[in-house]
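User: I'm writing a tutorial on reading structure tokens. Could you give me a worked example: one chain, its sequence, then its tokens, then a sentence or two explaining what the tokens reveal?
Assistant: Sure. Here is the example chain.
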Amino acid sequence: MTAPLKPKQAVDFDGALLQELQGDVSDSIAQQLLEELPPLTVASVVHDNGCGPGAVTMAIMGTNLPTGLEIHATDVNPMFLAQLQANLADNPSWPVKVEIMDACNLTFADNTFDLAFTNFVFAGLSDDVGAASHILRTLKPGGIGVIAGWAEMPWQVALKNALQDTWYGGANGAFSE
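And here are its predicted structure tokens:
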């Protein structure tokens, strides 16, 4: 039996397609969150967890940055990270380190971050509790963890059924709620 064919749009799901589908929701939320948090300092170490194409990182870079700030942007999707890298290429002096990393299995040392953002990531995770544990483990004492998510996702069943139909060949195993 051969593997099912996957539509080009699914295989090439990158930051540009995500931006087209969701508009500027992540950007707006990232900007609003930054406005409500204490200001970043010279010694701040920030984690943009599940960064996607970099809404949080780019929002931070658009503020009045203190010298010495450090940002770690991580995601499991290399296409998202490539888009973020392309955005950062015009500003090589920006203090951003980009790496492939699963939000459910962060490899950072304990007590690394002053601030950790996880912006619209939990809906797509395989292990929410593991991800939350890693966020807490990597925050410094007194650090702030920010998790943004959807209160409701009425479109989720339709997306899961579309996934079933396009990736797995039909509605025999369709999702329902």
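What the tokens reveal: Residues 39-152 form a domain with the Rossmann fold fold (CATH 3.40.50.150). DSSP finds seven helices and five strands in the chain.
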